[in-house]
Design a protein that fits this description.
30% strand, 5-stranded antiparallel sheet, Immunoglobulin-like, alpha+beta, C8orf32 fold, 361 residues
């Protein structure tokens, strides 16, 4: 009788586990990455455009590259294995060129995953804007953060950061004066003191303007984890860089994923990139976290610790990319095109992204 009861319990647990896994969703869509390049007046043109790859949580297929007759190769970045297009025209271009990259994506909602050929120990190394030790040792000690409590690290970053990218002290600036549609609360309250430095909202804007004038990375949207802990206002790059500085300081392997969020409607444009992170637990695999999305929608704070949804896909993993032919040193982030004219970085191009839901057989 006991054996029968035991077998029934095991079957019930297995059934519940299967049903739970079956609830994880997937989504299929096509994606268009478009770059319009201005004439270079016969000066040498080089451009690098990231390409996505398939892995355990996404399938990339039907890749089509229209280079407008520009010469290109598909290259592999060595440290993390990411792919990219390298365009080289020694004589430059005398007219506008429109480069399009089209592909199909099936993306799966997922929890912890054991990725093939990923060595956790290789993901303890700091990056140029994601240092370890020093201030992060102090943060760990002062806040009693622990390697055995990653949720505590996640919560610390979630509670210490504020989502926003204010660029001007005007009512027209969305993040200076606007309201988060998920909470109906002001993105950045005027009365708050932000970050470990306890700065005001106006000071956050001042740091942005100073950074732009000095071509500095000490502002939001650079994934600068020192800025993130000091000032406490930023976007997805800042949240997850901060998280990684803390996890790596505690000897927890972690990675940086960068791609695009896809709106839930059937088709449309995508305004810009999105990023998230994951961390490794022995014998369990890589757990994803999306702290900035949790901050924008507090009702999903528990969900985004250990789960990410299917309304996204990644273009690459890592930071400080070394790419063939590029003269500007390691790339902090690589999601938008990088362009050089006669070996000098240029922004003489326009980028656009769009998607359409698809069902493939």
């Amino acid at each position: 009788m006991r054996l029968l009861l035991f077998n029934i319990i095991i079957i019930f647990i297995s059934s519940c586990s299967t049903n739970f896994e079956d609830k994880l969703s997937s989504r299929s869509f096509s994606f268009n990455y478009s770059v319009l390049i201005e004439p270079t007046d016969d000066k040498k043109l080089e451009m690098w455009i990231p390409l996505p790859s398939s892995n355990e949580v996404q399938t990339i297929s039907n890749l089509k590259i229209n280079s407008s007759n520009l010469s290109y190769t598909i290259e592999h970045e060595q440290q993390f294995g990411n792919r990219y297009i390298y365009i080289l025209e020694e004589s430059g271009i005398s007219e506008k060129k429109n480069i399009t990259v089209d592909f199909s994506v099936t993306r799966r909602e997922h929890k912890n995953i054991n990725y093939k050929n990923i060595e956790p120990a290789n993901n303890l190394t700091p990056f140029s804007m994601v240092p370890t030790g020093d201030i992060f040792d102090k943060i760990v000690k002062d806040n009693k953060l622990s390697k055995d409590d990653v949720y505590g690290i996640y919560s610390f970053v979630l509670n210490g950061m504020h989502y926003g990218k204010p660029k001007a002290t005007t009512t027209e600036d969305q993040y200076y004066s606007g309201v988060n549609p998920k909470t109906n609360l002001k993105w950045l309250p005027d009365s708050s003191a932000y970050g470990l430095k306890g700065v005001s909202l106006d000071e956050v804007v001042s740091y942005y303007n100073q950074a732009k004038a000095a071509n500095s990375t000490y502002t939001f949207a650079n994934g600068n984890s020192v800025y993130a802990c000091d000032i406490g206002v930023g976007n997805c790059t800042d949240y997850h860089s901060y998280f990684m500085s803390l996890t790596k300081t505690l000897d927890i392997p972690s990675r940086f994923h960068m791609g695009f969020s896809i709106p839930t409607k059937s088709s449309g444009t995508v305004g810009g990139y999105h990023c998230w992170s994951d961390y490794y637990i022995d014998d369990e695999g890589w757990y994803p976290v999306d702290i900035s999305e949790a901050d924008k929608d507090p009702s999903k704070a528990d969900y985004f610790f250990g789960t990410v949804n299917e309304n996204r896909f990644e273009m690459n993993v890592g930071r400080d990319f070394i790419i063939s032919g590029y003269d500007g040193g390691p790339l902090n982030l690589f999601i938008y095109p990088i362009m050089e004219i006669n070996d000098i970085k240029s922004d003489k191009y326009k980028k656009a992204f769009s998607f359409e839901n698809k069902v493939w057989q």
